[in-house]
Amino acid sequence: MSATLPAAEAPAGPRRRTPLRGFWTRPVPLARIAVFRTIAYLFVPVDVFLTTAWVSAHADVPTAYYQPLVIGRLLDLPTPTSTVVHVVQWALVACALAAATGRAPRLLGTAVFVLYLEWMVIAMSYGKVDHDRIAYLVALAVLPTIGVARWRDRRSSEAAGWAMAAVMVTVMLTYFLAAWAKMRFGGWDWATGSTITRAVIRRGTVLSEWTLDVPGLLTAVQWAMLVLEFAAPLMLLVRSDRARTALVLFLLGFHLMVFGGLRIIFLPHCVAILSILPWERFPDAVAAVRGRLGRGRAPAAPAAAPPG
């Protein structure tokens, strides 16, 4: 006679795994954080002096033209006089270079985030707001929460996993909300209109001007952009290092293609995309390359003296 356990006492079966289970707490090697942190902080002077060098020109703009963003009004940030702009500029660059060394990661990282946030308020409070900054700004916000991390740190951290998940979600939302904005303000006419055609006429290069002679091509490109942007949440299902690398190559390839055809590049967003890569492998790869170069440069052993 076989006995059966009551339902309340029956052994529980394996918990069903969902694709996103543990997404926010999946441990990440601290070496990944250390390498990406160096990249993120070293990009600050590039952004300040090259990518958005025009921000410093606001030091010479009459303060009457300053219309602070909502966050600028809520935090009662200072009006960007010439002194304020130059102090923020040089303090930001100095803190970023210091933070790139990995020292005092919480203190210097927080300083970089606060100063870059103010730099962006100064940049975007004159009538133009770019959408390619939010993922990079989130990266600067979450990096100080992790603490000490070294390039060869083999430990894994849930705090690091949470930080990188936050950046990845923001990267995804940048694409998804871009599609949402297209539908909100342009409707389906955006996909069937001549948005990219106008962009090619205004900013096109030899790599894109030929598309104007192919009927329907740019309209198809606009539909493809909408589909891919609305499908951006699928990025969160990527797990393996190989798949993550393929995703990064695809996204960076898209932005390089846009730059080649329209001379538009979202560099801060591209830096945020780099957070998806398994950077913990980078120090070992560098050491292996150095080892090969060292062996190649090693002097040949002296020939044995002839007998006799």
Automatic annotation (TrEMBL):
Cellular component, GO annotation: endomembrane system
Record key words, sorted: Membrane, Transmembrane, Transmembrane helix
Domain HTTM-like: 25-282
Broad class of the protein's primary localization: membrane
TM spans (from-to): 39-57, 77-100, 107-127, 133-149, 161-181, 220-238, 245-266
Ranges in a coiled coil: none
Localization in the cell: Endomembrane system
Membrane topology: Multi-pass membrane protein
Protein name as annotated: HTTM-like domain-containing protein
Taxonomic lineage from the root: Bacteria, Bacillati, Actinomycetota, Actinomycetes, Geodermatophilales
